[in-house]
Write a structure and sequence with these properties.
3-stranded antiparallel beta sheet, 15 helices, 11% strand, Nuclear Transport Factor 2, Chain: A, 5-stranded antiparallel beta sheet, 438 residues, elongated, alpha+beta
């Protein structure tokens, strides 16, 4: 007869079980790390051209308006006809432009934020159903209403006047239109995922044995944030890893905002699932089967109606209107949008507190707030304005930082390729030595 003690596992067996489980977990984590490294490597290689272009152009686009004015003084700089001469009121400027436009074009906006000595830059849109391949941006003398020049936005064949708009097209679509924009959106989605993978790869491997705890773990993670001198490869590799960590949050914001700007069918469902509906007024307004080229409501009357509607929204929702920005008529929906800079805005350059009113009746159609109405829309506003280097509270220092960050993105892409190439060459030499010895 076998005693019960004889069937009990030995002390060696019971103490070995946890060790085996720990080893299995360690092997699983090692396999995950190898997979993450493989994805990071080849995702980075596939994104290199896109990110180099985006980084270089983005460094310049952080100063888009300043550089555009510097390159085109003849279009932007104007002198008053006499000292102290007043500018035409914004509605008279729009009317003056409309009189000088080619047939089939509509001057569809009034700007309220003109500056002394600077031309009014006014876009024009084709009448609904009328094809147009000519210029679509017009420079107007705000004192006399005289047309100073025009350009087709982003058309590099027009030369220096279009350099900055062309760089903008290059930045978000490689100047390839919808195809390029979609490609950039896919790259941005891959970049977003790779931000998490790259961050994961900087974390210290878990230990099966040894000291543990948050402070120990942080101590082991610390080298990932630091540069190591010595050989060139060590310095470049540690810079690639550390600099990615230093600006990791902004890289993620830039990547995810680029998904929102270029790949809306992916961005909107994700944000809606996380935060609720992301729909803006323009997206829900019906498109007219026979759009009106001109609004029935007079522009000045639309302005007064927009001001009243905005004041009512400000009173109801508890925000402050800081300054008027623009009144735009959109023929495809037969509606005006009246936009102001308010205390809800993150950006002063891209103010977006908006009321929509019907182009016939002046009836309120909707209100869009850049922040405060929905957590997802607020987050979208913030990541977009961080991307555009247009956060009011951060000012010029942040724009300089974004210009520098564009170069960091270029350097991260190039050093990633160089690290891959060096490691690949080492593996090839090792394989050759192994074959030769065999």
């Amino acid at each position: 007869m076998i005693s019960p003690a004889a069937v009990q596992p030995s002390h060696a067996e019971t103490s070995g079980a946890p060790r085996r489980r720990a080893l299995r977990r360690a092997r699983s984590r090692a396999s995950l790390r190898v997979l993450a490294l493989w994805v990071h490597r080849y995702a980075g290689l596939s994104m290199t051209v896109f990110l180099v272009v985006a980084g270089l152009t983005g460094s310049l686009l952080a100063f888009y308006h300043e550089l555009d004015q510097l390159l085109n003084p003849g279009l932007y700089q104007v002198q008053p006809p006499s000292p102290g001469a007043p500018r035409l009121d914004p509605f008279a400027q729009r009317e003056a432009l409309q009189r000088q436009l080619p047939a089939g074009l509509l001057a569809n906006r009034v700007l309220f934020d003109g500056r002394e000595g600077v031309a009014a830059l006014l876009p024009a849109v084709p009448f609904p159903g009328v094809p147009h391949e000519g210029d679509d941006e017009f420079f107007l003398d705000p004192y006399t209403g005289r047309l100073l020049g025009s350009r087709r936005w982003g058309e590099l064949s027009q030369g220096l006047p279009n350099l900055m708009p062309f760089l903008y097209r290059l930045h978000f679509s490689l100047a390839l239109g919808e195809v390029g924009s979609t490609l950039f959106g896919i790259v941005a989605l891959l970049w977003t995922l790779d931000c998490f993978i790259g961050g994961y790869l900087t974390l210290p491997p878990s230990r099966a044995q040894g000291r543990r705890g948050p402070l120990v773990w942080l101590e082991r993670w610390k080298p990932a944030w630091l540069l190591r001198g010595g050989q060139l490869f060590s310095w470049v590799f540690t810079w690639h890893r550390a600099s990615g960590l230093w600006v990791w949050g902004l890289l993620l914001a830039f990547a995810w905002s680029a998904v929102g700007l270029n790949l809306r069918p992916v961005y909107a469902p994700v944000m809606t699932a996380a935060f609720g509906s992301q729909e803006r007024t323009y997206e829900r307004l019906a498109r007219h089967p026979a759009p009106r080229a001109e609004p029935q409501l007079d522009w000045r009357e639309a302005h007064q109606r927009g001001r009243k509607l905005m004041a009512a929204q400000a009173s109801e929702r508890g925000f402050e209107v800081l300054s008027e920005r623009r009144l735009v008529y959109q023929p495809e929906i037969g509606a005006f949008r009246y936009q102001v800079e308010s205390s809800l805005d993150v950006s002063d350059r891209n103010a977006a507190t908006t009321v929509w009113l019907d182009g016939q009746s002046g009836q309120l159609l909707g209100f869009d707030a850049p922040t405060g109405e929905n957590a997802g829309l607020t987050l979208t506003t913030w990541v977009y304005q961080l991307h555009f280097a247009s956060v009011r509270s951060l000012g010029l220092p942040y724009r300089i930082f974004v210009g520098t960050l564009g170069l960091v993105i270029v350097a991260l892409s190039i050093t990633g390729v160089w690290i891959w190439w060096v490691k690949r060459a080492k593996r090839a030499r090792h394989l050759l030595v192994t074959i030769t010895c065999a």
